[in-house]
Design a protein that fits this description.
The complex is a heterodimer of chains A (154) and B (177). By secondary structure, chain A is an all-alpha fold. Helices cover 76% and strands 0% of the residues of chain A. In chain B, 47% of the residues lie in helices and 14% in strands. Classes of the chains: A mainly alpha (154), B alpha/beta (177). At the A-B interface, helix 2, helix 3 and helix 4 of A face helix 2 of B. Chain B: Keywords: Nucleus, Phosphoprotein, Transcription, Transcription regulation, Two-component regulatory system.
Amino acid sequence: MEVGQMQRRLVDYTKTLFMEGFLDAQFLQLQQLQDESNPDFVVEVVSLFFDDSEKLLNDLSMALDQPNVDFKKVDAHVHQLKGSSSSIGAQRVKNACIAFRNFCEEQNIDATLRCLQQVKHEYYLVKNKLETLLRLEQQIVAAGGSIPTIEMGF
Amino acid sequence: MAVNGAVTWLRRAEEIDGYDLSASDSEEVHVLAVDDSLVDRKVIERLLKITSCKVTAVDSGRRALQFLGLDEEKEANGFDGLKVDLIITDYCMPGMTGYELLKKVKESSAFREIPVVIMSSENVIARIDRCLEEGAEDFIVKPVKLSDVKRIIDYMTTDFREGEERRRGINKRKLRD
């Protein structure tokens, strides 16, 4: 596949992620921060997000598995996950966290367990999609092309 | 919005005439960024570097105070070579909150002049007001964007340059003539 085709495929894929709500404008902000002096910035931030999130999801599972759930602790973890997902533009994860926090406030154990499943689901979805997107970018760069900038006019 | 943009452009035009635009070490704004989130620290660091600032990023209010040399329990670690020109801190942090850090900085005779900017994901008027009342320079709602940082640094740089000139008693525009 030649570079032009790869670039078009990337643009289409990225646009789909925006339309389906997986990513929001903050992700574009991150891409703007990447340049020749920092060519791996997005990959680095996204990797930090993956590591951070997986640890938080583990902590959440453990916290909700206790006989006496400490909802303050649970809320603190969700708050963190909401923050980092918001910072990279992972919109659906962020929204799932917002719902999660509401149920933490109510101290509703069944609802919070369901929320955890929902957040995990959204996280693994966006992780998958980001990995695909970054792989497409890598292929373009490896073929000597540049990563096209997405305009938010669509 | 257009008004702000015009003002910034005007300041830039004045600065370009007769000024050496290459930032020397002493002219770079040194920002102390405080955030417990690794992801957010990475982003804010990059945002600040892209706006030509020197950045020191720490993960807690406690470490921020240590860096400044304000922590009573630990002695100043001799980092007094690097003056801090601006502190930008997250509000919600475990241990010391950004608000508490703000108060400690403003209570200190040595550091109260350093502008402090608060970042928070919660857009709560009461929280914003409380921070501004305590002396915060500005409040950024997260997620932080490049335009937020540019706005703050533009404002700081103008203030900063003018302040430096007053202190040195030099009017650079006169030198040009």
